[in-house]
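User: Hi! I have a protein structure encoded as tokens and I'd like to know what sequence might fold into it. I'm fairly new to this, so please keep things simple.
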């Protein structure tokens, strides 16, 4: 049902959608729907985006331990947070105040490096108990040695892929883990740059950063007060879109079937997956190698998916040792079962309880957006009539179908900040 013009918007996101609707109606008729949406979003400042809950707009100090950073991210149910340089002067500009973004993806890479040390270094325990002063040089040496391609299953009987529980128990109880600071791993281990928008930047800029340029979240800074006003995530954009259901501009796009929009972008032959009898650490290694935020867990015969492990699920291995204390080798199947039991027992709300969320090619984009938003998940798997995997759709994929990057749009926006995508037309 379409929203009547006189109807009061049910939410700030719906009000924003009606603003897009007003702009949509005055666009030149010869423009394509995508060109119209580009023009609409270019006309709206990013300051108009509804503010995130205060619990999601947090900063982490550079002298915070990695262990505490994991707890903060998990407690606030966020994937990343800006890092404030504690050594920056009080009158520092925002460029000097923030040194980067700490995220689960970077923490996973750091942890996997520690697991590789365990595989290759007989003095692993000694390395974990190294003094705090040794942490910086150790990390620098790791970055210099190009630790970017993890080996797969090690045959070493004491490797972390064989003794995952032992590895995480050793890591999380060590002084090394408790004393390593967020600032110590800056500049390495997939450290994300602090790339912020000003309140006057456009919606289109924000949407392109969250899609084509692969940012999970975009901080919006207030130059006058030198502080972060808002943090806009991919999930927040998907929620905004769900709230726009019924508006003409949304229905003309969202009512299309996935197959009409060229979704899924990632086909079945390219899906990165892990088997249910693989060690759970293997799932995170695959995410690291392939630059993805989650992998499906498939049955031993490889025909059907039985679950999903996301990058943020590393928190369970770091914060809840009870889920692996009974396993010498915890497989992905053990992990799925143990985490589900833990979450249910503690009555926690978690995307983990959603299990394997699927759709089919004939579903509309609107249906998929509703599922993603209601279940607070970041990917949905496309299956055929018999449940076999056909592809995966992420939040980024959906946003990328909403807008496109005009030629030369960003100019020198990224200079010295981050590498451009290979298909950039800047």
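Assistant: Happy to help. Inverse folding works backwards from shape to sequence: for each of the 426 positions I chose a residue that suits the local structure. Here it is:
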């Amino acid at each position: 049902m379409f929203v009547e013009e006189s109807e009061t918007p049910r939410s700030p996101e719906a009000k924003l959608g009606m603003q897009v609707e007003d702009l949509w109606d005055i666009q030149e008729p010869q423009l394509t729907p995508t060109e119209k949406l580009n023009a609409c979003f270019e006309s709206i400042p990013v300051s108009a985006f509804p503010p995130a809950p205060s619990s999601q707009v947090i900063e982490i100090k550079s002298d915070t331990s990695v262990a505490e950073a994991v707890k903060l991210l998990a407690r606030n149910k966020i994937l990343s947070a800006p890092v404030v340089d504690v050594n920056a002067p009080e009158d520092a500009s925002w460029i000097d105040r923030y040194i980067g973004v700490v995220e689960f993806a970077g923490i996973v890479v750091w942890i996997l490096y520690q697991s590789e040390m365990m595989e290759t270094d007989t003095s692993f325990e000694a390395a974990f108990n190294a003094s705090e002063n040794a942490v910086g040089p150790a990390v620098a040496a790791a970055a210099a040695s190009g630790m970017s391609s993890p080996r797969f299953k090690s045959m070493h009987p004491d490797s972390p892929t064989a003794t995952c529980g032992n590895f995480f128990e050793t890591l999380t109880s060590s002084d090394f883990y408790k004393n390593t600071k967020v600032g110590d791993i800056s500049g390495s281990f997939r450290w994300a740059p602090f790339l912020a928008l000003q309140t006057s930047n456009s919606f289109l800029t924000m949407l392109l950063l969250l899609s084509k340029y692969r940012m999970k979240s975009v901080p919006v800074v207030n130059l006058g007060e030198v502080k972060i006003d808002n943090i806009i995530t991919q999930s927040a954009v998907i929620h905004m879109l769900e709230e726009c259901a019924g508006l003409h501009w949304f229905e003309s796009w969202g009512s299309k079937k996935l197959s009409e929009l060229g979704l899924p972008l990632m086909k079945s032959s390219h899906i990165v997956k892990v088997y249910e009898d693989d060690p759970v650490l293997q799932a995170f290694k695959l995410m690291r190698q392939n630059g993805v935020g989650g992998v499906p867990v498939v049955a031993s015969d490889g025909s059907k998916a039985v679950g999903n492990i996301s990058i943020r699920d590393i928190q369970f291995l770091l914060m809840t040792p009870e889920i692996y204390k009974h396993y010498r080798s915890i497989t992905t199947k053990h992990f799925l079962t143990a985490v589900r039991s833990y979450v249910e027992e503690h009555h926690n709300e978690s995307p983990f309880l959603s299990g394997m969320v699927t759709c089919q090619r004939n579903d509309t984009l609107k249906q998929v957006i509703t599922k993603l938003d209601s279940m607070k998940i970041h990917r949905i798997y496309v299956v055929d009539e018999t449940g076999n995997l056909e592809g995966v759709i992420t939040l980024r994929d959906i946003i990328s179908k909403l807008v496109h990057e005009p030629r030369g749009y960003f100019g020198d926006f990224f200079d010295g900040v981050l590498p451009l995508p290979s298909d950039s037309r800047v």
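A useful reference point when you look it over: Residues 104-120 form the longest helix (17 residues). Feel free to ask if any position seems puzzling.
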